[in-house]
Amino acid sequence: MSIKAFELVPVIERVKLMSDKAKTQIECLDVCGKNMYIGTSDCFVVHYSIDEKTQANGRITYTSEKQGHKYLVVKKPVAQLRAASALNRIMVLCDNTLTLLNMFDLEPIVTGAKIKGVVCFCINDNPVRTNPFSVEICVALKRKTVQLYTVTEDRMMHLRDVTLPEQAVAVGVDGVTVCAALTSQYCMINTDSSYITDLFPIDDNLKPIIKRISKEEFLLSGPSALGIFATSAGVSQRPPMQWSDGLTAVSFVHPYIVALNDEFITVHSILDQQQKQAMPFISGVFLGDFDGRIFVASGREIYSLVPIPFEKQIQALLADKRVQEALELAKNANKTGMSREKFVKMFKRIQQQAAFIEFAEKNFDEAGQHFKESAIDIREIISLYPHYLPSSVNFTRSVPPLHEIADINQLSRSNEETKLAYKVFLREFLEDIRGTSITHGYKLEVDVALLKLYAESCPEKLPELLADDPGCDLGDCVNWLERHGRLHSLGLLYQHHGESEKALAVWTKLMDSGAKDPSFPGLDFIVLFLASLTNHELLWKYVDWVLEKDEELGVKIFTERPANEPQSERLRPETVVDYLHRFPIAVITYLEYLIFQRRLEKEKYHTHLAVLYLEAVIKLMDTNGTKKEDLDIARSKLRHMLQMSNLYRVQLILGKAKEKEMHAECAILYGKLEEHDKALRILVHKLKDFGAAENYCQVNSRGKDPAACKRLYHILLSVYLDPTYERRDTLVAPAMDLLNNADAEFDNVKILQLLPESWSVGLLGQFLTRAVRTSMHNSRMTRIERMMARGENLQVKQTFIEMQRDAIVMNEERVCAVCNRAFSDPTFVRYPNGVVTHVHCAKNKYICPVTGKLFSADKR
Amino acid sequence: MASRGGPQRPNGASQGKICQFKLVLLGESAVGKSSLVLRFVKGQFHEYQESTIGAAFLTQTVCLDDTTVKFEIWDTAGQERYHSLAPMYYRGAQAAIVVYDITNPDTFGRAKTWVKELQRQASPNIVIALAGNKADLASKRMVEFDEAQAYAEENSLLFMETSAKTAMNVNDIFLAIAKKLPKSETSGTPQPRQGVRLNNEQGGQQSEGGCCK
């Protein structure tokens, strides 16, 4: 647990006291700037000037020169001595009397300011009053009282008393709070309210020590050699410290607490309350800190405890691999007056060093965290892995070096397992920081390293990396991927760099050679790639290769192109169709794509596709042993095409279809030619598919006016009833079905004319009933409609009249619009346009006499 | 150390309220105070826990509904010679756990004295919990559950039998304390309050403050 925080440097090796009597001993001292005052056991005050010099090697040495001395006559030891530079005075406690001396000539002050019966005193470093030319002190008296004074150049002004239950033997003061050690216990005294908070008892064999640590916080010596912290409120906010026995004095320079006993000077950290250093120091009598400098005195010598610079302490800790402590210390170093910027820089560097130590110790979690927090130059880490930096990057590690690691081979001593652990760390670390600000500017390095790591051990992650805009250059990545057989990824890398040709070369090679790369999705992938390839020249080079491997897949190159691709000469539909001639499946798929998806309305393609379908059907019909389902599928495809499209050359298809007696197709084609009679005849007579016939009527009447619709059904019925057809008996039933079909629409009068005379009413009963009812229904509906329209009209009229209604004020000033005379009787006439006249002036109530406007006389 | 680091943003807008409480453990030596804390803070248990010197300090944060409760735990030393230091640590504490050992009736007696002392000298509204530790040693039980329960009810203490070794009831007792502590903005430790005085002038009556209700 040790650390070297301080170094003992002699200040005055042998105090030249007045007499060389062996009994003369140092009792106390104070340092104020370059002045050092020493109080001795034989009542002398000695003044030295001391000079601190920093040697070339960084060591600090002191030179001292005696300035003067003063004998205080009372032959008692000087118990306490404090300089007050603002007043040019030193306060001396000797023989229980506190007096003032001149700081320079050590002469007593003639005004005779003094306090008698003093046990001890202390200066308030956090004074309540703010006069810079006065000093507040707290004095413990023999008579169970503490007093507060303001001391000026020549006077000591009494402020207030607090009476205590016992005599105080040690005091500390901060603001209005006095911390006092009474004979049996410590207590906190609020001098404003005189309220006393008991802290804890003092054992008989304990020397009470009170040291003010910071604002409102004191350090006290407690039972079992504990150092106990206490705030003004009497609460302990830090855990206690374990000291050694027999302490005589305590000092504090952040973050260290220095304690003196008979044999040792011990140093504890206030941060973790642990002991950090112990120096043998025999017979120490005094220890004190003065403006951040610590001095310690034995009977005759005086030393300074010179702090070792933080950096040195931290480096020493790091050298011992005590990372936690080093960081803790470094974090607190900014309290030592370093500029913020400098501190951050220093702290980062220490953190990085710490990180590399943890790294070397294989404490990867800690290492990663420190690396991240200190925003390490990522190349520092990658450079530890031989060959993982991109060959194009020229990197030299920082000077002075952050660590002494050569590379991971050295760290792992070529143990493969350890090496793997290091690589896993790097991989996880890079994945973690990828895209964060740490990697800013080092995308190339990070991604290349990741690529290499993945290629080695994690090939499944490669495509993801390569899909996500990697910063990898081609450089040695190509070699690396080839070496590890990640050909698919190599292709992806080429693709990312726009080298489609090389990428395709790699993939086709991968296909042809049959080499195994589990990440390679196969031909589909190449097809997809070609489908989105913008370089059409290159595309044509590979089309053959793909189509020969798989027509159906290959045609996707043309059918699955990105929607927003600009039209290009090389990919014009004509060119493609021409090219695809050799591949019958591909050409059909492509034409289907053109017609059904792109909705190209070119007669050529429609006819071509129709012909191709037809040929396929014919081929199937001609081969023996064709399965019926296959044929049905082919024919339904053809029929769908024929039905759907209106653009193909009907005659051409019709000719071939007739030849092959494909009646269903013929019917559709006739339909296209509007030759419904022929079409329906085929359906009824040849195919005897009455459902299809009715369906035909429905399909062909879609979107046409009811008359055309009626005409179609009428044609169908005439076909059924055609007297020239020899087997017309068989058609009576479908004819009746048609008549009774609710969907079919007929002109009933024409139907009655068409029906054969011989049919009985019974047979037609259903149809007739329906016809009559429909007719009745229509007539009634029409009537209702008319009456409702009339009602509506009435309502509108009423509204209109109401809107026109207007009050008319009749008075003397109102004159007739015709004769310009006043009204004498209460009757008058108002025209709808607002003209008001005498009754007798209104000749015609339909014509306005002023404007001549004609009001409708229309009465229904 | 105590005041450094950690989530002390007084009113982290996004994460609801943060309350900070000082909690002190008291009880006879070797009843398992440090073990309880170690189990609660680090989830560990040492069969041979060294005896605490003076006092130790640890922190642990627990989440309770929308409130983050940070415990500042003062684990005091049980040995008699340190007894006189206890007030330094329980002064200003909002919660205390008084621990005894169910296999040792003397420690239960000592616990009662601690409760009395707390009731007399600690903050008037301190939440006190009584923990009968070493519940895993039920075969050597000397203090009956009912007896301790009755005592706890009489003095309105929270009561649980715990085992730092098996972790039984350890988190529960701390959570029970967190639930019982007043979580209005006016309570809690005085120190992290300075930043949020926006509307404290209307007195301590907080309208369940904050936007995230």
TrEMBL record, chain A:
The membrane-spanning stretches of this chain are none
The stretch of residues making up the signal peptide is: none
Q: Which UniProt keywords apply?
A: Cytoplasm, Protein transport, Transport
GO biological process: any one? endosomal vesicle fusion
What residue stretches are annotated with the CNH domain?
23-294
Q: Where in the cell is it found?
A: Cytoplasm
InterPro entries given for it? Clathrin_H-chain/VPS_repeat, CNH_dom, Vam6/VPS39/TRAP1, VPS39/TGF_beta_rcpt-assoc_1, VPS39/TGFA1_Znf
Where the CHCR repeats fall, as residue ranges, is 561-725
Gene Ontology CC entries for this record: cytoplasm; membrane
Under what name is this protein listed? Answer: CNH domain-containing protein
TrEMBL record, chain B:
Kindly give the Pfam families that the UniProt entry links to this protein: Ras (PF00071)
Q: Which reaction does it catalyse?
A: GTP + H2O = GDP + phosphate + H(+)
Say yes or no: keyword Protein transport present: yes
Q: Which CDD domains match?
A: Rab5_related (cd01860)
Per UniProt, the ranges with Low complexity bias are 201-213
What are the Polar residues biased-composition ranges? 184-200
Q: Which residues cross the membrane?
A: none
**Entry-linked InterPro entries:** P-loop_NTPase, Small_GTP-bd, Small_GTPase
Q: Where in the cell is it found?
A: Early endosome
Q: What class of enzyme is it?
A: hydrolase
Where is the stretch described as Disordered? Answer: 183-213
Gene3D superfamilies listed in its UniProt record: P-loop containing nucleotide triphosphate hydrolases (3.40.50.300)
User: What's an example Gene Ontology biological process for this entry?
Assistant: protein transport
Task: Identify the keywords attached in UniProt to this record, alphabetized.
Answer: Endosome, GTP-binding, Hydrolase, Lipoprotein, Nucleotide-binding, Prenylation, Protein transport, Transport
Report the EC code(s) recorded for this entry.
3.6.5.2
What would you give as a GO molecular function for this chain, any one? G protein activity
* One cellular component term from this protein's GO annotations in UniProt: early endosome
User: Which family does the record assign?
Assistant: Belongs to the small GTPase superfamily. Rab family.
Q: Which NCBIfam families match?
A: small_GTP
What protein name applies here?
A: small monomeric GTPase
